[in-house]
Design goal:
Elements: H1 2-28, H2 36-44, H3 47-69, H4 72-78, H5 82-93, E1 96-97, H6 100-118, H7 129-152, H8 155-173, H9 181-206, H10 211-233, H11 243-262, E2 266-267
Antiparallel strand pairs: 1-2
């Protein structure tokens, strides 16, 4: 449990800093094609974006450890801790200021996660790798079909849709197993595809509004969906007597994230 929590916290810190670097890199790109192929062409020519990808890969490796050692809802909820990191770094780097109400929302996210961590129970690995690969493939299809409508919407919609992709990536990662090499390779392919589409949509969102407003709906989606899937389908458990506290913690942290996503932050003079 301790190793899993340490890995989750380290990945959250990496994701938080990488999100701000990602926003800075996206805003430095010239206007052009925002489709997936156009974005990939621009990204491979951008050293800052390639550095962001490297940071995300390191964060994902740490997150994968957390996913294996912790209940899925706890591993995903811990990613919400990237939000205060993002808020502080974006204020220092991009001059995006959060008012008092939005800082209270950041505190709510952290307080909610304390309850979730305190009530975390054991981890079950009862779902076959093949089943998770199938779930991940269907998830990828839904994500791809909804990508273009999401691009036509606002940054909040884009953030939420990218969160759906990262949620699918987390769920499919539970299928990685040394005992089933073939399906684990397929799972890795699906995870990579989900991550690519999610990264693209999140990048577009970061180019449209402030980092906190783009990140909050992403966190809501990638926290809530795997949490439900983990408890309902994977057999993740909660400590006896802590069910209400864990539920309250999820609600409070998600409410804080939603509040952060309701309105853009204020840019300070550089």
């Amino acid at each position: 449990m301790i190793l899993g929590l340490a890995s989750a916290l380290a990945s959250a810190a990496l994701f938080g800093v990488a999100a701000v670097a990602q926003a800075h890199a996206m805003r430095a790109l010239p206007d052009g094609d925002l489709g997936l192929r156009g974005f990939v062409r621009a990204a491979v020519r951008s050293w800052p974006l390639l550095g962001v990808v490297g940071a995300y890969l390191a964060g994902f490796a740490l997150h994968a450890v957390a996913l294996y050692l912790l209940p899925l809802y706890l591993a995903q909820a811990s990613i919400s801790l990237s939000l205060p990191v993002t808020a502080v770094v974006s204020a220092l780097w991009l001059h995006e200021r959060l008012d008092t109400g939005r800082w209270l929302a950041v505190v709510a996210v952290i307080a909610g996660l304390v309850l979730v961590a305190a009530g975390a129970g054991g981890v079950e690995h009862t779902t076959s790798t093949a089943t998770l690969v199938g779930i991940g493939a269907l998830w990828l299809l839904v994500l791809a079909l909804g990508a273009r409508p999401a691009l036509a919407g606002g940054a909040g919609i884009l953030g939420a849709w990218s969160g759906l992709g990262y949620a699918g990536s987390a769920v499919t990662t539970r299928g990685l197993s040394a005992d089933d090499v073939l399906f684990s390779v397929l799972a890795l392919v699906v995870v990579s595809a989900l991550g690519l589409v999610a990264f693209w949509l999140y990048s577009v969102a970061l180019g449209r509004t402030d980092v906190a407003s783009s990140t909050a709906p992403l966190i809501v989606m990638q926290t809530c969906i795997p949490a439900v899937v983990g408890v309902v389908a994977f057999g993740d458990t909660v400590r006896s007597g802590w069910e209400i506290a864990v539920l309250a913690g999820l609600v409070v942290s998600i409410a804080g994230a939603i509040h952060l996503g309701r309105a853009p932050g204020v840019r300070m003079a550089a």
